[in-house]
Specification:
Length: about 170
């Protein structure tokens, strides 16, 4: 009976995994994950995470206004923006540049931009933290790294880029 149970469980596992095998064989699994599955999961988990971390994020981002440039402007670069779950915590009038290696977050990012009209969105860059050449040196006041572990291969290279783009 134990052998029959194992055979039954293995058969169930094969049936569950079969669509993945077929999509992978056809070369469709990775694009599906990157464009549909991963952004959807991050979006849904983000809602739960935001509720649990709201108090901590309020404390973490409460002093962002202190980093305003002498002109009073606050330019913020967010690396690994994902769906933009931090937008609600940024101060009014903040100019935000968003980066992520996955361009498929655009839908949830646009939704969060509409909900957070207190910010000025400058642009969205498809870029890794290690290569922010599209951001001029000394052009931002604050850098926030959100989904950094999902969008960065080298922490030291990313830190060099962060130091380069930060206002002296």
């Amino acid at each position: 009976e134990a052998g029959a149970s194992i055979l039954f469980l293995r058969s169930c596992l094969v049936l569950l995994a079969f669509p993945v095998y077929v999509l992978s064989f056809l070369g469709l699994w990775e694009p599906f994950c990157r464009k549909v599955f991963f952004p959807y999961i991050v979006d849904k988990l983000g809602v739960v995470h935001d509720k649990k971390s709201k108090k901590h994020k309020l404390e973490l981002f409460r002093n962002l206004s202190e980093f305003r440039s002498p002109s009073g402007e606050l330019r913020l670069l967010e690396i690994g923006t994902g769906g933009g779950s931090n937008f609600q915590f940024y101060p009014p009038g903040c100019k935000v540049t968003c980066t992520d290696i996955n361009p498929n977050f655009q839908e949830s990012l646009s939704k969060n931009m509409k909900k957070n009209q207190h910010l000025q969105y400058e642009r969205f860059l498809v870029a890794a933290g290690e290569d922010l050449h599209q951001v001029p040196s000394g052009s931002v006041d604050v850098v926030v790294c959100t989904l950094v572990l999902c969008s960065v291969q080298s922490v030291s290279s990313t830190l060099r880029e962060v130091l380069r783009v930060l206002r002296p």
